[in-house]
Write a structure and sequence with these properties.
globular; alpha+beta; 11 strands; 4 domains; 23 helices; 4-stranded mixed sheet; Transferase(Phosphotransferase), domain 1; 548 residues
Length: 548
Amino acid sequence: MTSLKRILVIIWVISKYRLDQLIPLTLLPWYLRVLLCLAPWHLKPTPKHLSRGERIRLALQELGPIFIKFGQILSTRRDLMPDDIAEELKLLQDRVPPFPPETAKSIIERSLKTKIDDIFEKFSEEAMASASVAQVHTAQLKSGEDVVVKVIRPNLIPTIRKDVAVMKLIANLLETYWSEGKRLHPKQIVEDYEHTIYDELDLQKEAANGSQLRRNFENSEILYVPKIYWDYTRTSVMVMERISGIPVAEIDQLHDQKTNMKILAERGVEIFFTQVFRDSFFHADMHPGNIFVSRQHPQSPQYIAIDFGIVGSLTENDQIYLARNLLAFFNRDYRQVAQLHIDSGWIPKHTRVNEFEAAIRSVCEPIFEKPLSEISFGHFLLRLFQVARRFDMEVQPQLVLLQKTLLNIEGLGRQLYPELDLWQTALPYLEGWMKDRVAPPNVFKNIQLHAADWAEQTRQLPQLMFHAIDQLSSAEQHRLEHNKQMHQLQEELKNQENAKRNRLLGGILVTCAALFSIPEASTLVENVSYPTLALLCGGIYFMVFKRN
């Protein structure tokens, strides 16, 4: 019932801003076209004072955090979105209407169990930035450090629960009634997203992610991560070092300070691959509202990352599989790409490798040796999806977050330096990573890393061997006992069978004696021939002694 109410709310918001007018009817089935044409909201006039971009942005804002997140992703896709819509959606990154400062203060004091004035020398009531899940205020600690205070929006969980319930309902319908549903795993994808969005509501988890990322890039020239103040961080409140940088989307400001845009774009790619392959821990919410560029050293630009609510990680097998696939793509070894997909189980084992190889070649070959401005990962992935349908390729939910991050990186690179060749920038890094894995220093490092575990296992080896021998001895003793019991059971069954035969023979003998005591029976036996009598005795013997 809750899901139905939320669906009605979504339909109402769509009608309120007349978003139905923005849907290309030719893309819809005929029955949906008829339904839209007959829908009652056609009686409602179009809000002419609002542009189409404003209508979409306001609708997403009204629908809540999950829809705002969707708008943030679309704002980076200039190749898929017209400029007027993308510019409006960009406002969703940090300009969502704020909640009252009194509410923010109340949440801070309730979380930290003390008064604002006891913690901060200064506290700005005006929100510095306001996004879908939280808003940020500037402040100064009593010790003099400039900080920012992030506060979770109140009453978010009920709305998120309703939205997730709607998403689950849609996912169930897709998986049940759509022919492609089971292959794409929509239910599992929604469950993964549910975990992600709830993790964003816990600022202590975000702070822990930020601390990990800061350690990974300590003293790095390419990425700076602000310090977390743990004494003032709780589930609903986080206090972090205040940074000074230029928002990465402010291209004009970056040009004004003569930022080397080529190096900036290349370092963005390097940061992504370093996080994914070196650390297996990557910032998975890299929209422009969360990325800044330091004002220092514009010719050797350094990124500054904030908002660590969504992070991703890969297993070692996922890393190796992904790297081998990307290297095969870069080297145009489509046979290896096809074979890797089959070996991994993404494609059914009965798939003919040469057919899948040819299909991949038709998608990949046109995109190589072109600048990023002429390559759209969005269109590229769409074509791959079409190929996947032909070969029943399954979507891997564990890589969905990585794919989303890669799309954000592409959108960011397109804004910074359209001539960037993404493939050639990434190729040397991947080749170096794969070589390092088999190089002697790395092998020795792995030996050192696991030496303590191996030593502990070696120390326990005599005990483990004794335990194994004891288990084998116990098993042998159990086998002998079992055999003894089986032998006893067989003897008992044999005795029972002999007793049964004796009773049967006794009964026959008694019957025969009774018959011979009758005169008529004696006369009958005397008239029976010897062969017949022998046959009769043999039959009785067989029935009694040989039947089993």
